[in-house]
Amino acid sequence: MKVQIAKDLLSIRAVFLRPEEPFTWASGIKSPIYCDNRLTLSDITVRDHVEQALAQIIREHYPQCEAVMGTSTAGIAHAAIVATILGLPMGYVRSGSKDHGRNNQIEGRCEPGTKVVVIEDLISTAGSCVDVVEALRSAGAEVLGIASIFTYGMTKADERLAQHQVKNVSASDYDTLLQVAAEEGYISTQQIPALLAFRANPSDESWISR
After folding, report:
1. What is the CB-side half-sphere exposure of residue 179 using CA atoms within 13 A?
2. If residue 177 lies in a helix (H) or strand (E), which one and from where to where?
3. C-alpha–C-alpha distance, residues 89 and 109, integer Å
4. In whole angstroms, how far apart are CA 129 and each of 12, 31, 74, 144, 167?
5. Are 50 and 71 in contact, with CB atoms under 8 Å apart?
6. How many CB atoms are closer than 10 A to CB 157?
7. Contact partners, residue 14, CB within 8 Å, separation at least 6
8. C-alpha to C-alpha distance for 173 and 194, rounded to whole angstroms
9. Count of CB atoms within 10 A of residue 133's CB?
10. b/e for 40-50, b at 16 or more Cβ within 10 A?
11. Of 115, 123, 165, the residue nearest 147 (C-alpha)
């Protein structure tokens, strides 16, 4: 699964690897990778692979799941499709409460005690998905964990998830992507150490000169 999803993300250019010409994240961090998993929705074959992978993660790792909740906005469409595959209720969680109407942060029915899985497209530092988990917990839901499309596997994310006692299972990850990218000629094997150095310490830009 991890290899197939990595191939898919690279084939539709949902992931760019540019170690010589890094991207700048909103935080100001220089990054050799840019990931836009929204593009998976536009490719029928890749979309099917992704949604089936997320559904399989829930079947294997969260068999008690009673509802899926997408993160707003990137996880909403994936949550809807996965919920359809599994025959489960679906909703989504905003980054904050609406300032009108019923002031909802959680959209869709989520009764106290409901066992839910959060659907996320990308785990970078895990800040936004942890906020979603805590919002659901505050509403009384029992969050079994997160099913995500891709993770960078950053230490900060792992620490944050552990601190909040949240499990995440991703359909693919950074290490698998680099392996596939090298095998298929997107990058050279000589570029891998710099790419791994970024992941080990994103705020240290010394990897750029490697």
Report:
1. 10
2. helix 174-183
3. 8
4. 25, 21, 11, 13, 11
5. no
6. 19
7. 8, 35, 36, 37, 38, 39, 40, 46
8. 17
9. 26
10. bbeeeebbebb
11. 123
Instruction: Specify the pLDDT at position 20.
Output: 85
Q: Extract the tokens encoding 165.
A: 């006692």
> Are 120 and 146 spatial neighbours (Cβ–Cβ below 8 Å)?
yes
The tokens describing 9, both together, are 């993300």
Residue whose entry in the numeric block shows the structure tokens 């996965």:
82
Give the pTM.
0.93
Mean pLDDT of 4-12: 98
- Can you read off the two tokens belonging to residue 91? 């909703």
Q: Which pLDDT belongs to residue 77?
A: 97
Does position 184 have pLDDT exceeding 60, yes or no? yes
What is the rounded CA–CA span in Å between residue 16 and residue 36? 9
Q: Which residues contact 173 (CB under 8 A, 6 or more apart)?
A: 2, 150, 151, 152, 153
- What tokens does 48 get? 């099917």
Amino acid symbol at 25: W
Contact (Cβ atoms closer than 8 angstroms) between residue 70 and residue 148: no
Nearest to 202 by CA among 165, 156, 141: 156
Find out whether 89 and 83 touch, Cβ atoms under 8 Å. Answer: yes
Residue with tokens 């991207």: 23
